[in-house]
Amino acid sequence: MKIRIIGCGNAFSYINFNQSFVLEEGGRRMLIDCGARIPLALINAGIKLSEIDTIYISHAHADHIGGLEEIAFSLYDWVRRPRSWDDYAAMVKRDYFEPGVTYEPYAPKLIANEKLLEELWNYSLRGGLDSMEGFDSTLETFFQPVPVKANVPFYWQGWRFDLIQQIHIMTGSIIKYTFGLLASKAGSKTVYFTTDSQHCSPRQVEIFYKRADLIFQDCECTGVDTGKREFKFGSGVHASYAQLAGWPSANSVKLSPEIKAKMLLDHYQDFVSKMKDGFGNDCDWYRLAAEDGFKGFVAVGETYEV
Question: Are 89 and 145 in contact (CB under 8 A)?
Answer without folding.
Answer: no
